[in-house]
Amino acid sequence: MNQEIVVVPGDGIGREVTPAAVEVLRSLDVELEFLEAEAGDAVKESTGTALPEETYDLAASADATLFGATGETAADVILPLREAVGSFVNIRPAKAYPGVDALQPETDLVFLRENTEGVYGGNEHRLTEDVSTLTRVVTGTASRRLAEFACEYVADGGYDGFTIAHKDNVMRETDGRFRKAVEGVAADHAVEADDVLIDAFATRVCLDPTQFGVVVCPNLAGDVLSDLAAGLVGGLGLLPSANVGPNNALFEPVHGTAPDIAGEGVANPSAAILSAAMLLEYLEYDVAADRVRTAVETTLEEGPRTADLGGNASTDEVTQAIVDRL
Ligand code: GGG
């Protein structure tokens, strides 16, 4: 029986790069079936809700979901969708590719971002006309679950260990709990875990990203630091991601809707297509996943390239080149 993939393009360039990723998946010898679902600004305008119940239910029950991008409705769309698939970790590889002009061509990082709590927990309140508050929840349970995953991830990937990025010299209770919980699990598994303050990490990774490999971080820090790493490797058009839960997962490029270029057909589809490769790997189509990665890498090296990488090719031209190289 074919595995069911829910496709949620979202808004902006999500509507251009997600079909590109589906085209790549369709051109492979894999038993997948695609079901399109809506979410985002446009559907909110027409129906009053950014995430229809049907889309949430489909994502929750499908074998995997491929998501595009969200803009103004990020909190109403992407956070519930990540919850729908039960994901507790957002895996964000940030890698420099041959042929791409990168600030730091040796960059090869993977962020493992806590995906359920922290300041992303939605505990925001307007107390008065002048005062708003945010309650940040950090649990040992969620931190340990992430750490268990990180230990498995470094063992499977042949890494020496991982780095915990935190800010526990200031947020002693919340980031302190996070760091100690992750360190404890690492010690139980005899996995080497060093740690670094988030602000120091930001400087050190720009100066020499080869000091780091797998980086385990709280939710918002993972979002910000992975975007920073995108700047080191040539831009957000290159970073894929996977939101993984115990029985389900959602795959999305790290980038957002890019309203400045949306609708022009010039967005870089690489991040979405590399996200599709992560989906293939998750569904245990390892050979197909490798073929897609190699085709993307060859295209990044030999062209054609979109404008963000100094070229003038369209999304369709780059996608076709990738399909031709499969
Ligand atoms: N494709 C992911 C996306 O739409 N990113 C925009 C965004 O605001 N992301 C926030 C997040 O990843 O937590």
UniProtKB/TrEMBL annotation:
Pfam families linked: Iso_dh
Record-linked InterPro entries: IsoPropMal-DH-like_dom
UniProt keyword list: Oxidoreductase
Entry's Gene Ontology BP terms: isocitrate metabolic process; tricarboxylic acid cycle
Domain Isopropylmalate dehydrogenase-like as annotated: residue spans: 4-322
Keyword Nucleotide-binding part of the UniProt annotation: no
SMART domains per the UniProt record, alphabetical: Iso_dh (SM01329)
GO molecular function, one term: isocitrate dehydrogenase (NAD+) activity
SUPFAM superfamilies: Isocitrate/Isopropylmalate dehydrogenase-like (SSF53659)
Annotated family: Belongs to the isocitrate and isopropylmalate dehydrogenases family.
PANTHER family linked to this entry: DECARBOXYLATING DEHYDROGENASES-ISOCITRATE, ISOPROPYLMALATE, TARTRATE, ISOCITRATE DEHYDROGENASE [NAD] SUBUNIT ALPHA, MITOCHONDRIAL
Protein name: NAD-dependent isocitrate dehydrogenase
Organism for this UniProt entry: Natronomonas aquatica
